Amino acid sequence: MISRRPAPVPFPVPKRGTDGRSPTASLSQRAFHLIRDNILRGEFPPGAILSRRKLGEDFGMSFLPITEALGRLESDGLVESKPRAGTRVRIPSAQDVREHCILREALETQSARLFCEEAGRDERLELKGMAKRLDERFRQSETNTDADFLFELHTMHVQFHTRIAQYTRCKALCDAIE
Q1: String of b and e for 129-153 (b: at least 16 CB within 10 Å)?
Q2: According to DSSP H, which parts of the chain are helical?
Q3: Sequence-distant (≥ 6) Cβ neighbours of residue 35 within 8 angstroms
């Protein structure tokens, strides 16, 4: 069964209309975020079969936005589709994880460098506050291994790095970090 509980959002997210959670996001963007969040939470574990029809029923959407979302998730490497076998949550290899970490480090390093050049005083103060809250949550994670807590921590971490990228004013970098 799919959890319909929205992910906690500890930081304000700018209204860009493309985050999948804003009221102006398309159905396929919303489906993308719902499916991705369920994968990251472990509610759709590696190897789990994803039925387009069932997902559409669970999310109150038609087949088309679910298909578009799964296509995007496949290009992101989270799911894989095979003819006559269907779509399932992809099981990453050790090499996949290593390469993802290398790429992520490169993007975040560039993002931090550009942030230092572009960010104004208020943006730096906002990020400093986010960093303090994130550090506190990381300290709490030493004793709290609840899946929802860890997902919230992951969400905060992603939002922190997304915000840094947004303040670089480089759309291509923001898209890559996303």
Answers
A1: ebeeebeebeeeeeeeeeeeebbbb
A2: 27-41, 52-59, 63-75, 94-118, 121-141, 147-166, 171-177
A3: 44, 50, 55, 66, 69, 70, 73, 79
Give pLDDT tens digits for 139-148.
998 888 888 8
pTM metric for this prediction:
0.62
Give the tens place of pLDDT for each residue, 16-66.
344 455 555 789 999 999 999 899 888 999 999 999 999 999 999 999 999
Q: What's the token pair of residue 92?
A: 């990453």
Q: Which domains does the chain have, with CATH numbers?
A: 1-91 (1.10.10.10), 94-177 (no CATH)
CA 91, CA 87: separation in Å to the nearest integer? 12
| d(C-alpha 20, C-alpha 152), whole Å | 17
